[in-house]
Design a protein that fits this description.
Mean pLDDT: 77
Distance between the termini: 67 Å
Number of helices: 2
Structural class: mainly beta
Shape: globular
Number of strands: 18
Radius of gyration: 22 Å
Largest sheet: 8 strands, antiparallel
Low-confidence stretches: 3-22, 293-315
Length: about 325
Amino acid sequence: MRKVCLLASLLAVAAGNLCASGAINCALGGLAAGVVVPTAATDSSTGCWTNLFVNATALASLDWGAPTSPTGVSGLGPASLGNSFAVSTSVPVQTRTATTSNDQVSITLAPGYQGAVYRADDFALEYSADLQSWAVPGSPGTAALEGFAGHFNSTTGTPPPGAPAGDHLLESTSGAPLELTFLTNPVYGAWFEIASLSDFRNTLFVAALQAFDSSGNPLGIYQLTETANGTGGICASLAGRPPIPCNDAPYLGFYDPEGRIKSIEISVFNPGNLTLPIGFAIDSLEVDVPEPAMPLIVGGALAAFALFRRKRWALPR
């Protein structure tokens, strides 16, 4: 059902672009009541939302490469070769965002899909301590990591020997849409950088993020269409010595001022075929979470009031 809903939303938003430019077109569609475009939501150069599109009061950031841990802040660990996580609609991978309340995020595939997600770092070459130069992953003196020469912010210059050379990414190599569910509380917003996994020949893509509430009702969809810059596929300058990052992956996100976002579904398509998803990678997940201080303040005030009433009634009359 969600695949049909997503396709219908994609076709609907294609009719009207929001703040379109010559390079990237963005559109909102199928918005539920209460969902509005945030103030200062757009970037003048691209016409699309940026990492600052929300005036967030309680930000959380999930680094996919953080060490795995059963408690506390956790990610999916290093981008070791073959470090994949089998997921499906019913078999999730759970991580935790970097907040004091350790909000859990569940990673599954969209209904009807089977497959795996992968950890990768954004680089083409690694610095070899043995060779004292940049080398292909797996060469002597390298950490043998899984790399994607994409458009995120990789390390420049000469890092310490053996250091990885790129951002920590989460990949859906098969193209199966990812579904991220916020297990602790619904959130106000979620956003991240995104790029397709296509090669030199096809660097354009269409990315869509659909948000749902706790009952599975759609809150709306944000679609980004890369039409000219080629921010998908392989970033050729990452193969240089030293690697030069493109650092041009666009942001994809959704914001609901009512704070009802319980899950998001991420899909990427070839511009010529909006029915067949293709592989993609996303960078760190940024989340606008509910302010944790308010419930504590309210709860503390109620407890103090109850204690005051009990002591008052206990006084001799």
